[in-house]
Amino acid sequence: MSSIYDERPDFRPGRRRAARPLADIIGPAIEDACRRRGFASSEIVTLWPEIVDSALARRSRPECIKWPRRMPGDDGPRPGTLVVRCDGAGAMVISHQAPVIIERVNALFGWRAVERVRVVQRPPPPEADSGRRRLRPLAPQEDAHLAGMIGEETPAPLASALRRLGRGVIGASPRREPSA
């Protein structure tokens, strides 16, 4: 009879694994999909809000990179065309910011990978979290309880993150009436 230790040699009782960033886990999972679309790596998709501003990133998505056919005598790969899917209003902004987008994408790749940006006017796919439930506002006593749990000595960036997390957890649950 085999045990779990035979099937998974990395699993040992009492051995704790270090926490890994979610980006390290998701990155390899989307690499294949990105390669099928002409992206050398998934960074252009995952870092799109940093390449364009976050407001424009909500209206647009990088679709693919169209690479030109290799010709005999080419020394190396020739730059391709980045195809960006966006809505009508975002198309004008993307075409206006094309030189900046090209510069940032090329800086991301570390070589002249893109020479043109082509805009395809279609609405971008909906956000993955658009089906999430809306959080209810916290009652004053819930907000005070959350602030007391965080404490005043917590550094500001950590306190802000903990406050967002606490509001998400408390706001997702139904409001409890105080017991009398």
Overall description:
The protein is an alpha+beta fold. The chain has 2 domains: 22-121, GMP Synthetase, Chain A, domain 3 (2-Layer Sandwich), CATH 3.30.300; 133-180, no CATH class. The chain contains 9 helices and 3 strands. It has helices at residues 4-7, 22-36, 43-46, 48-51, 54-59, 88-96, 98-109, 140-150, 156-172; strands spanning 60-66, 80-86, 114-121. It has a 3-stranded mixed β-sheet with strand order 1-2-3. Helix 8 (140-150) packs across helix 9 (156-172). The radius of gyration is 23 Å and the shape is elongated. It holds the Pfam family DciA. This is DUF721 domain-containing protein. Residues 122-142 are annotated as: Disordered.
Count helical runs: 9
Structural class: alpha+beta
Counting DSSP E segments of at least 2 residues, the number of strands comes to 3
Largest sheet: 3 strands, mixed
Mean pLDDT: 78
User: How are helices and strands ordered from N to C?
Assistant: HHHHHEEHHEHH
Radius of gyration, in Å, reads: 23 Å
Segments where pLDDT lies below 50 for 5+ residues? none
Strand content: 5-15%
N/C terminus separation: 57 Å
Q: What is the top-level CATH class of the largest domain?
A: Alpha Beta
Provide the CATH architecture of the largest domain.
2-Layer Sandwich
Total individual domains: 2
Dominant shape: elongated
Write down the CATH topology of the largest domain. Answer: GMP Synthetase, Chain A, domain 3
Helix content: 40-55%
